[in-house]
UniProtKB/TrEMBL annotation:
Belongs to the glycosyltransferase 28 family. MurG subfamily. GO terms for molecular function: UDP-N-acetyl-D-glucosamine:N-acetylmuramoyl-L-alanyl-D-glutamyl-meso-2,6-diaminopimelyl-D-alanyl-D-alanine-diphosphoundecaprenol 4-beta-N-acetylglucosaminlytransferase activity; undecaprenyldiphospho-muramoylpentapeptide beta-N-acetylglucosaminyltransferase activity. It catalyses: di-trans,octa-cis-undecaprenyl diphospho-N-acetyl-alpha-D-muramoyl-L-alanyl-D-glutamyl-meso-2,6-diaminopimeloyl-D-alanyl-D-alanine + UDP-N-acetyl-alpha-D-glucosamine = di-trans,octa-cis-undecaprenyl diphospho-[N-acetyl-alpha-D-glucosaminyl-(1->4)]-N-acetyl-alpha-D-muramoyl-L-alanyl-D-glutamyl-meso-2,6-diaminopimeloyl-D-alanyl-D-alanine + UDP + H(+). Residues 4-142 form the Glycosyltransferase family 28 N-terminal domain. Its EC number is 2.4.1.227. This is UDP-N-acetylglucosamine--N-acetylmuramyl-(pentapeptide) pyrophosphoryl-undecaprenol N-acetylglucosamine transferase. One of its GO terms (cellular component) is plasma membrane.
Length: 368
């Protein structure tokens, strides 16, 4: 198979695309992949490091108010379509897959105009503007959440496939997760992470609640601060009582997140689509604090989807503080039956075969 992947801006768009490419390469070892992104997005650094050929186009997103910049964006879109057609004619793909971000717009649109089969993948419950636009032209649509299906009613070949990153983490080694933290297998611990860069509001609530861990004597706490907050967090953690310090493990980043997540008793997290796909693939109970600083507040519907299923608890950032967070952590960690019920509900939402399902969709449209 010759496959073009496109998606950019954030890891939430890039890693699903890479997971789809990885699945295609595993199924068909002679697969050729080209990734089209922008030089300004994270994809320009992440994708080449994976050894995947990378080409760029110049495109920006629309602003939500009248602006001269939107006129320039239209011009960039037209130029981006022209550049995309050139790249597609040279590469001659069997299919083009878009996973979100404004770079997908000209690439997938150009492919549709050239008669190349196209699939778009939507990670969030509420679709982004680009995928809403592209769904009119795509030959297939894959969604991560069942709650997304009504947003694509009337479109062709819409499948609730899950998020392909779930397939990557489903084979994580739980024992290695414990060992990497220096913990004995089965040690109960809470994993708190605000994303790769950290989250100030979440970190502050965690630092406020940690002294209360004295009332949870057997529970450890793994606190992933993000690099820019790490030194400040270490200084604050130095003020903890000595008997607590051994149960709090502060890290600025986790290189083996799937392994540690698979070992966790509970995760405290933002509600990005890829994070939730990993959490549910592994069946981990969660406390979710959706970021209010994302487009269309799309993390809140993501978190609500898990909370409504009994797989997680949602706390809005405006309601978040150390007391509220500790009460939620304590209520779950001291109730084994509730933990087990949440884990089962989380696992029921998980779709570890997502990448394979999307691959079959791609093969279907390519064969047609």
């Amino acid at each position: 198979m010759r496959l073009v992947l496109t998606g950019g801006g954030t890891g939430g768009h890039i890693y699903p695309a890479l997971a789809i490419g990885r699945e295609a390469a595993e199924r068909e070892p002679d697969t050729s992949i080209l990734y089209i992104g922008t030089t300004k997005g994270l994809e320009s650094r992440i994708v080449p490091n994976q050894g995947i050929p990378f080409e760029s186009i110049d495109i920006t997103g629309f602003r939500r108010s009248l602006s001269i910049e939107n006129v320039k964006t239209v011009m960039r879109f037209v130029q981006g379509v022209r550049r995309s057609k050139q790249l597609l004619r040279e590469f001659k793909p069997d299919a083009v897959v878009g996973t979100g971000g404004y770079v997908c717009g000209p690439v997938v649109y150009a492919a549709s105009r050239l008669g190349i089969p196209t699939l778009i993948h939507e990670q969030n419950v509420v679709p982004g503007l680009t995928n809403k636009f592209l769904s009119r032209y795509a030959d297939a649509v894959a969604v991560s959440f069942a709650d997304s299906l009504p947003h694509f009613s009337g479109r062709r070949n819409v499948v609730h496939a899950g998020n392909p990153v779930a397939s990557t983490v489903s084979k994580a080694d739980r024992g290695r997760g414990f060992r990497s933290l220096g913990l004995a297998d089965g040690t109960p611990f809470v994993l708190a992470v605000g994303g790769s860069r950290g989250a100030k509001a979440l970190n502050e609530a965690i630092l406020e609640m940690l002294p209360r861990l004295e009332s949870l004597p057997n529970v450890h706490f793994v606190f992933v601060t993000g690099e820019r907050y790490y030194e400040e967090a270490l200084a604050r953690l130095g003020e903890l009582p000595t008997k607590l310090k051994g149960r709090v493990h502060a890290l600025h980043y986790l290189n083996n997140m799937p392994e540690v997540l698979s070992a966790a008793s509970l995760v405290v997290s933002r509600a990005g689509a890829s994070s939730l796909a990993e959490i549910t693939s592994l069946g981990v109970p969660s406390i979710l604090i959706p970021s209010p600083n994302v487009t269309n507040n799309h993390q809140q519907p993501n978190a609500e989807s898990l909370a409504d299923a009994g797989a997680g608890v949602m706390i809005l950032e405006k309601d978040l503080n150390g007391t509220v967070l500790f009460e939620s952590v304590s209520a779950i960690m001291q109730d084994t039956a509730r933990q087990e019920a949440m884990a089962a509900a989380s696992k029921a939402l998980g779709m570890p075969l997502a990448a394979g399902s999307i691959y079959e969709q791609i093969k279907g449209i390519a064969n047609k």
